[in-house]
Amino acid sequence: MSHGSKPRFDGRTAIVTGAAAGIGQSIAIGLAADGACVMLADIDAAGLENTIEQIRSAGGKAIHAVADVTEEQAVADMLRRTNEAFGSVDILVNNVGGSTRGGHIWEMSLETWQAVVKRNLQSGFLCTRAVVPGMMKQKYGRIVGLSSGASQGTPWRALYKGGADYATSKAGVEGFARHLSLELADYNITVNAVAPGPIETERLRDSFKQMESLEFSPLRMTPLHRLGRPDEVASAVLFLASDEAAYITGQTIRVTGGR
Ligand SMILES: NC(=O)c1ccc[n+]([C@@H]2O[C@H](COP(=O)([O-])OP(=O)(O)OC[C@H]3O[C@@H](n4cnc5c(N)ncnc54)[C@H](O)[C@@H]3O)[C@@H](O)[C@H]2O)c1
User: CA angle 138-139-141, nearest 5°?
Assistant: First the structure.
């Protein structure tokens, strides 16, 4: 919530991709609770309704688009609707991402590799490319991408499941932020990333539970010895999206419980 009398994102507009569930839902709710007008984009229509309902019942402002943000036309339509409703975009959170079935390098198909790179990198590329001209014109922008502890190699993932496609894509999210922070600095657009560790979302709850007895389990390997919560990731994203972080760009904040 806000630190002063005015909400932190008063008068700001934001796009959050993947806002129907998990971390993206928590980010969208947090931005709206702190005064932002939020466009929620996701492929999951029912989940979007759920997020919208939570935001509106708390008095927040949000609209939504059922959109696959790895598709150029869907991103263009989503941005047009955002501009029609809110006039401009100040904040973009590239939250869409995730892995498919993982797999060790010696058994990974080209299709799996390409699908994961597309979901984690093409989504952020297309949404960023779409919003940047408007941000350049208004000389203001905050772009935050979702990386992962996996960008540095995560033992439980690498040892038991593989997933070089995901780890490599997330390292790409950090490189994208690092590069664009330089390219866009003169326009007062900051570009950063947040790298979550093991976060207890609905989707991952059971798989983390199944890993508890493993030698290199998330709980054993994480210094704080617990899973993180979506709102603990959202608070780092909101910080980077706020004016408090005006002098921070090209950085990745690791919300990984100490790893
Ligand atoms: N949960 C974790 O432990 C964890 C850890 C590290 C990084 N992350 C990253 O954080 C982000 C959010 O993760 P999460 O666990 O909340 O994921 P999630 O799977 O719970 O939610 C992702 C949302 O994105 C949507 N989505 C997927 N592909 C889409 C597409 N092409 N277009 C539009 N929407 C799409 C899904 O429908 C879903 O609502 C991801 O980038 C993920 O890689 C998560």
Answer: 95
Q: What is the pTM of this model?
A: 0.98
Q: Which atom of ligand 1 is nearest to the CA of 123?
A: 31
The model's pLDDT over 82-106, given as tens digits with 9 standing for 90+, comes to 999 999 999 999 999 999 888 999 9
CB-ligand 1 contact for 200 (6 Å cutoff): no
Domains in the chain (CATH in brackets) are: 13-255 (3.40.50.720)
Beta carbon of 198 within 6 Å of any ligand 1 atom: yes
Task: For residue 185, give Cα distances in angstroms to 48, 110, 189.
Answer: 33, 36, 6
Is the beta carbon of 255 within 6 A of some atom in ligand 1? no
Residue 54 DSSP symbol? H
* DSSP H helical ranges for 58-119: 72-86, 110-117
pLDDT digits (tens, 9 = 90+) for 227-256: 999 999 999 999 999 999 999 999 999 999
Residue 186 C-alpha to ligand 1 middle, in angstroms? Answer: 31
